[in-house]
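for the recovery benchmark. tokens below, seq after
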């Protein structure tokens, strides 16, 4: 496929660091969109603030680069105003589950017909390497020089519990599986979440002495287990493992269906 067809080449090269996995996620998204045959004019890509949120600047779609944590709020407005749009949100772990945490759980609760791809590098990469809601306990960050005292969020289980129609997790190393999950998410009705574990060698890797991007990818290769396998493992066996797979895939009415029913009822009663 011709990746350049989907890119704003005047904005290249990108700003992502050597070894960052964000470009792998972007290429996966573009491959799936190409496979689905979607028209670029029918896609809206929305982001907040952060390394991953630079993505809309590189793609030749309808794009919005919004404020920190508010991408889902803007995306909700887009979807309600123009239901025919394929609305995709890209967000980081901090952007999605810290300042944007309430938007995230309520988008899942409402089951809005939006696909959200969360680039989880377990740290605030762009703003200085601070602790994020997914930084593992004990790991170092600029705001936790002696180790993070907090337990991390499990993004996929949070989305599933909040009501999302589809939730999956992959690593960037397993790019074929990532393509599969993104395709499933984009073609599901309702709120669909793909959490992507992606390395940040510049901030997280250096602070925690986990090596360069290649070393962090090798860690993903050697420490990833499927949901099915994880179900038979003890907590000790799962320590430091990366559990991937489809957490939720269910059919249920999306927010737009409920919203249109309310509008129809209101109009009939006003008449």
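predicted aa per position
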């Amino acid at each position: 496929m011709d990746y350049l067809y989907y890119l704003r080449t005047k904005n290249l090269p990108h700003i992502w660091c050597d070894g960052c996995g964000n470009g792998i996620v972007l290429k996966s998204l573009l491959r799936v969109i190409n496979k689905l045959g979607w028209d670029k004019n029918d896609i809206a890509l929305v982001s907040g603030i952060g390394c991953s949120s630079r993505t809309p600047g590189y793609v030749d779609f309808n794009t919005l680069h919004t404020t920190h944590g508010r991408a889902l709020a803007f995306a909700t407005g887009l979807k309600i105003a123009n239901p025919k749009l394929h609305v995709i949100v890209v967000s980081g772990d901090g952007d999605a589950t810290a300042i944007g945490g309430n938007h995230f759980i309520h988008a899942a609760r409402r089951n809005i017909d939006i696909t959200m791809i969360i680039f989880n590098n377990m740290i605030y990469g762009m703003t200085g390497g601070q602790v994020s809601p997914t930084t593992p306990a004990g790991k170092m960050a600029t705001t936790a020089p002696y180790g993070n005292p907090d337990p991390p969020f499990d993004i996929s289980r949070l989305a599933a519990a909040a009501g999302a129609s589809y939730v999956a997790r992959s690593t960037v190393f397993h790019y074929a599986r990532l393509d599969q999950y993104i395709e499933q998410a984009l073609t599901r009705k309702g709120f669909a979440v793909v959490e992507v574990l992606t390395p940040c060698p510049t901030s997280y890797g250096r602070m925690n002495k986990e090596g360069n991007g290649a070393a962090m990818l090798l860690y993903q290769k050697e420490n990833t287990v499927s949901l099915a396998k994880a179900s038979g493992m003890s907590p000790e066996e799962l320590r430091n493992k990366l559990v991937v797979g489809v957490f939720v895939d269910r059919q249920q009415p999306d927010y737009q269906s409920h919203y249109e029913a309310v509008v129809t009822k209101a109009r009939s009663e006003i008449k």
